[in-house]
Design a protein that fits this description.
Blueprint lengths: L2 H14 L5 E2 L17 E11 L4 E4 L5 H15 L4 E3 L7 E5 L9 H5 L2 E6 L2 E6 L2 H14 L13 E12 L5 E7 L7 H13 L4 E5 L1 E2 L2 E2 L8 H4 L3 E3 L5 E3 L4 H13 L3 E8 L4 H6 L29 H16 L4 E5 L6 H4 L2 H10 L9 H19 L3 E5 L12 E4 L4 H8 L4 E3 L10 E2 L11 E3 L2 H6 L5 H5 L6 E8 L7 H8 L2 H10 L7 H17 L18 E4 L3 E3 L8 E5 L16 E3 L3 E8 L9 E7 L13 E2 L1 E6 L16 E5 L19 E11 L3 E7 L3 E4 L2 E5 L13 E4 L2 E11 L1 E2 L2 E2 L8 E5 L6 E2 L5 E3 L1
Parallel strand pairs: 1-8, 3-4, 3-5, 5-7, 9-10, 9-22, 10-15, 15-16, 16-17, 17-18, 18-19, 19-22, 20-21, 23-28
Antiparallel strand pairs: 2-8, 6-7, 6-8, 11-12, 13-14, 24-26, 25-27, 27-28, 29-42, 30-31, 30-32, 32-37, 32-42, 33-36, 33-40, 34-35, 34-37, 38-39, 40-41
Bound molecules: acetamide and zinc ion.
Length: 788
Amino acid sequence: MNSRNLILTCVCTFLCGCSVENILSEKEYNQGINVLPLPQNINVGSGRFIISKSTQITISDDSLGQVADFYARKMQASTGMNVKVTDKKVENAINLSIDRNVGKGLDTELAAESYLLSVKENGVDIKASSLRGLFYGMATLMQLLPAEIESGHEISHAVWSVPVVDISDSPRFKYRGLMLDVARHFISVEGLKKHIDMLASVKINNLHLHLTDYQGWRIEIRKYPRLTAVGGTRIDEYGKEYSGFYTQEEIKDLVKYARERFVNIIPEIDVPGHSLAAMAAYPELSCTGESYDVMNRWGPFPVVLCPGKENMFELLDGVFAEMSTLFPSEYFHIGGDECPKKVWETCPACQRRIKEEGLFDDKEHSAEDKLQSYAISRCEQILKKYGKKLIGWDEILQGGLAPEATVMSWRGEAGGIASALMNHNVIMTPTSGGMYFDHYQGNSQAEPFAWGGYAPIVRSYNYNPVPDTLVKMGKEKYILGVQGNAWTECMYTEDIVEYRVYPRIFAVAETGWTPDGKKDFNDFSRRLNNMAVRMDYHGINYHIPLPEQPDFCRNHVAFTDVASVSFGTSRPIKMVYTTDGTEPDLHSPVYDKPIQTDTTCTIRIRSVLPSGKMSMVREVRVERQSYKEPDTGRTPEHAGLKLHFAPHRCMYISELSEVKEWKDSVLTSIEPIARLRTNQYMNVEFYVAVAEGYFFVPEDAIYEFSSNNTRITVGDYVAVDNDGKPQVNSRYGKSMALKKGWHKIKIEQISNFIGGWNSQHRNSGAVMMRKYGDEKWTDISKDNIKYN
Ligand code: ACM
Ligand code: ZN
């Protein structure tokens, strides 16, 4: 405690007779500088500025009242002190003033976001050339204060202090964004406001809302009421309705809320692919006039708007006319990704348009690619009429870019590089750079079910949006910035969306703001511990790294003699564990070396943040086994496995007993079990299949199993259990100590929809195994299966 704090504490204890002061700055997570994103320049001095009852916010003119009032309210709520805003000069104040010289020499938009912040023991000065800069200066001041400033309720007997510092700050990029896909799973206005609060606190200035897709249309358009009346609802495979859309009044409220926090909302209407919800409402938009239901499964699908007819452009004109009055954003997003163009090849209207517009095949582009480009250029013209500029996903390069389009590069950086080389603006959001928040942020064996892919926070953090090629060509100025994308197919609730977005979006915030050379993952990790407390006060369900085995992360470990299980976390965090069946808590043993056991037990282990907040518990079953003898001493007679098949629809293995009529045949290799019928998104057949026989184990060893089939049983031991769970990523493989020879195997496969997934999606049908210590999985081959 410095002398000033000590005196203050003693004085208060003496005067009010209250207990010892709550020195918030001494809490572990409040120590050091926790500003995120890290400012460009920061000099830490000695001493602290203490907010007292006399502290006021002074403003150099009334126009600054908006920013001053915003933060005065925030400070008052947590400190309980009546922080007044005044235009008079007072002592011990936080002084906000406009200084046109701040950010001078920078690009206009970067200059507007720049600020100077000087904290001295007797006051704080924040200067910027715009309100936005002052807002960011105050945001930094909030982060210099203890995390409890975010509490939103009065914390009594607390000392609120800020270290003496000098900061001069400006962003690296003008665009720093988050995309939320509210089409697949809707996010309430209240939920979006929570995100906006967090984004504003880390100086993210764009929220991109993906408002329409195959699975829903989520914004009221008065001219076309069926877009939400029909397109806003889907019925799932089990008859349950899923609905939601924003009324125009709600959008106005949301946009106002975002503007007060200097967050721009970019709306996306995804065309000409990803438009099935609109076609469900207005079938004349399709090439065939065919009517569809709003899709209740995850795509993409071969369904597309018809750019041969005028309906599509008339609709978009009406939509953008209304939306342009709701969203002040300079940019509107028109999607343009994953457009299936096959239907256009046989559509008379599309082919007529190709002819009329001279969109013929050439060496680089097909006529249909050019038709897509034609459609996007028409979108650009419509947007222009309403004073808006177009952004599209990188597929809008196909067939040639619309004249003034900005490109969001998601399929790696190639599209972004190609666009910048043609002097088009680019926002980088590549899957390869950790910008896809539907990807796993930890090992898929440990984490809750996600889309797939791997994007740990360190990958998101280390991403540099400016490729060397562009620097060499002098084109880096076309990189406007960076964005993280939360596609919500696998994010079934708002809580899960938060779990996937936070804290990875803070990595995007720092990448977008801080010079690359100043980024430091270890220091960022330390600052995340402070951000975690702030998120707690905002009720954000953020990800806490789970304990994972560093080499082979499994939930089931088999051993024959003694087991040693090691754990680590994706950033340095304490772990606590038990092996006696109890829930680990703050008093449980701290993990500091591999856990050894010679008896069967369940390790329950979780991470603990400096705030005391704990992660979910990971359970790892550690099972002592003796080698299982082969089920038959003789080589079975026939090649393949016995197959029982029935065109029956069910969800769980337990329902197989209801199947009366099985058709028997032989499966010559395992994989086709997943392809017994058409394996397409649009036209899935429901069936059950059971294959039985023996497989050959090549040597005595402990083997681990994995499969996306519903259940795999070895002998009478369930080795893989995906029963009733989305099977796109198997997470349920177990391990077995097996002797060389022929062992019984039963493979069960249910073809159905689970959580919007076709259970055959990404299921090769294979049963994979690997020996402990091996990196590589191998499929059980057709030579190693037999039956009697
Ligand atoms: C995308 O991920 N389809 C842009
Ligand atoms: Zn057509």
